[in-house]
Amino acid sequence: MSKLAEFKAFYGRIEDLKQSSSLLSWDQNVYMPEGAHETRAQQLATLNSVIHELMTSNRMKDFLAALSKENFAEESDEGRLLARASRNVEQASKLPAEFVETLTLQRSRAVSTWLKARAQNNFKLFEEDLTKIFDLVRQQADYLGYDSHPYDALHDQYEMGSTVAELKPMFAELREETVKLLKVLGEAKQIDNGLMHQAYSIDRQREVSEDVARLIGYDFQHGRLDPTVHPFAQDISKYDVRITTKYMENWFASSFFGTIHEVGHALYEQGIADKYHRTPLGTAVSLGVHESQSRLYENMVGRSQSFWQGYYPSLQKHFPENLAEVSLADFYRAINKVEPSLIRIEADEVTYNMHILVRFELELALLEGNLKVADLPEAWNEKYQRYLGITPPNDAQGCLQDVHWSEGIIGYFPTYTLGNLMSVQLFEAAQRAYPNIVEDMKKGEFDNLLGWLRETIHQHGSKYTPAELVTKATGQALTAKPYIQYLNQKFKSVYGIQ
Ligand code: ZN
User: Fold this and answer.
1) Single pTM value for the model
2) Structural domains of the chain, count
3) Domain check: are 276 and 206 in the same one?
4) CB within 5 A of ion ligand 1: which residues?
5) How far is CA 442 from the centre of its chain?
6) Which residues are the active-site residues?
7) Are both 203 and 131 inside the same structural domain?
8) 262 C-alpha to center of ligand 1: Å?
């Protein structure tokens, strides 16, 4: 057996453990009985520590040292596979064990005080633990290492190679243009989306969710769809990618668009090349690229006029009591209503990024020491007023709404907006390659779109960095311009503005 084949067999076993851990956490979030909480946490901790031991073992280091002498071409699968494995090993080795333990402990403490603070709507309860979290993530950034900004070290864990220096101007442009667009839309005649809040039979929502998932390409032979409170997609391996959705009787959009969103995530994982299975290249490359796939399907497909020209008759058949008398035009407007609101996860396509930019700017200020945790609620409210024209009546609906900070997850939020920006740039490139993609949607055909995404994004797994992928797929580096243009065009038309 060659050294490389031996290494792949060794690494494959680590991947098997990771996949098992994935399955256990899927179960934890979907079916596990309440009483199994502690043993499940123990099982996951054990698996993760075995994975960590193998990743940082001498055997691993020996393999990487031996293989580095084989001089694989940098762009070859082998070269990239080794580079990716080295990065994974390096990341696993950078944080001292005692630090990881301290951070883990502080996280679980902070999550429980956050829950209490949110329930009692009292930020003061959370202040001390959040301050400690930011002290610890500053240390974490030092351990991980960075060139110009500590935020880069944290953000890089989720979006390899992306930096504050690139994000800042791109996000500033997006913010200014969105604030302008929101002003114009706010002055137009408002949309009544009452039809979305009627009662829609849950059983039939379930049928429609499965139907639309299958229609746009989700492979139920290698996946399944279950109900949960917090929807997500979980890859066990590319042969088993599961999704969940949330059925709400009075908000049919939750299950419908939620399902399409998670299918977008799942198509990515299901499309990774077979040859990368059980290797360091066999996973999605970043959260931003991941989100670009879910948002592309959710918005460019699921909230587009062409898709509904094809699918609306079928939806009307499922829900005649709700939709028989509603025109396609009214339905299309209702699903695209724009309204500044306080809660990120309920935001529409236009306002969503404003929620992210607020969090990004505050994370930076907190990390740089330009903002004290004690002053966070005021800074939060001030930004919501400035960007969205609304002020949270309390902190539970303001800076206490997300779990991320209590979990020490800093540098993650920007990946949502990066995904949005990529989604449009990618969709436009797909249309250049297959000009009929939009016409196809009216006929319920999605093969060319999926084929193009498979070809340019999915199959590559982690072989290329996010920036390389976007540039190869679209012919240029990521910018906010296509996205801004898309928002203006789509929503001015939805609101009947010339
Ligand atoms: Zn997502």
Assistant:
1) 0.96
2) 2
3) yes
4) 294
5) 27
6) 262
7) no
8) 6
Same domain, 246 and 107: no
CA-derived radius of gyration, the chain: 23
Looking at residue 93, what is its pLDDT?
93
CA of 291 to the centre of ligand 1 (A): 5
Q: Rounded distance, CA 172 to CA 357, Å? A: 9
Asked whether 360 and 381 are in contact (CB, 8 A), the reply is: no
| Residues whose CB is less than 8 angstroms from the CB of residue 479 and which lie 6 or more positions away in sequence, other chains included | 170, 421, 425
**With the CA atoms of 229, 233, 237 and 238 taken in that order, what torsion angle do they form, in degrees rounded to the nearest 10?**
150
pLDDT score of 37: 86
pLDDT at residue number 41 = 87
Cα 487 to ligand 1 centroid, rounded to whole Å? 19
| Beta strand spans in 192-348 (E) | 225-227, 233-237, 240-245
Q: Are 24 and 43 in contact (CB under 8 A)?
A: yes
- Give me ligand 1 centre to Cα 260, in Å: 10
CA–CA–CA angle 145, 147, 153 (5° rounding):
45
In a shared domain, residues 129 and 170: no
Mean pLDDT, consecutive 10-residue segments, the chain of 498 residues?
95 98 95 92 92 96 96 95 96 92 92 95 97 97 96 97 98 98 97 96 98 98 96 97 97 96 98 98 98 98 98 98 97 98 95 98 97 98 97 97 96 98 98 98 98 98 98 98 98 95
State the distance from the centre of ligand 1 to the C-alpha of 498, rounded, in angstroms.
33
183 and 132 together in one domain: no
User: Which strands form 240-245's sheet, in the order they lie side by side?
Assistant: 225-227, 240-245, 233-237
Quick check: 306 and 439 in contact, CB under 8 A?
yes
- Identify whether the C-beta of residue 188 lies closer than 8 Å to the C-beta of residue 339: no
Find out whether 95 and 143 touch, Cβ atoms under 8 Å: yes
Question: Is residue 158, in this structure, part of any structural domain at all?
Answer: no
pLDDT tens, position by position, 425-437: 999 999 999 999 9
